[in-house]
Structures are given as C-alpha cells and as structure tokens.
Amino acid sequence: xxxxxxxxxxxxxxxxxxxxxxxxxxxxxxxxSYLAEPVKEIDRAQWDDMLGCLPPENWHTTREGIEVFFxxxxxxxxxxxxxxxxxxxxxxxxxxxxxxSTWITMEDMVNASNED
Length: 116
What we know:
Elements: H1 11-17, H2 21-36, E1 40-42, H3 44-53, E2 57-61, E3 67-70, E4 79-86, E5 89-96, H4 106-111
Antiparallel strand pairs: 1-5, 2-3, 3-4, 4-5
C-alpha cells in the first residue's frame, strides 16, 4: 500500500476536507501499525461473538477451505479485522479489504499465536 500525498487529492478535496500532509502521514502510519499486528488464535466464544455483533461482511469459504468473514466495523479507511476458521482452529487478523495480499491464508492459520 503506497502512502498518499497531497498530490493524490484535488485542490477542492484539500480545501473541503482541510487535509494536511501530516494528517495523511499519520493515517498511513496507523494503517501500517494495524497490519503489523500478529495473527492471533481465538476461541469459539470469541468467534461467535464477532460473528453475531454485526452482520458479517464477505462471509465465505476460501479456495483453501478456510471459512472467513470481515468485521463490518473498520478501524480506519479500509482496515478491519478478518476472522478465519479451519479444522477447529479460529484466528483473527487485521487486513486491508482492498488488498487481498493481506487477507487470511493457510500460513496464517498454521502460524497464529494464542498468546495475548
């Protein structure tokens, strides 16, 4: 994900929203910090809570056989949590819904930590 600069916005957008380069840099830093968080193993109760708190977004089974969904509440921009379930194991990971390379994979399922 490339960092945005003021050049990515029209003069009208800059004026209307009062965007500064510092604010753009801070938003990008926040997004990177979410994506850098480790994948975590969760228990069934946590899975069920997240599945039931809001309607799940893009709930499906991947080609690898992992049942996944996105939390409909976003941390910032296109960053939210994705939940995965495979063979009795459940995980959560921050992802960029606009960047499939950040989505849950079988490698994430295998390497997830259950440490807090």
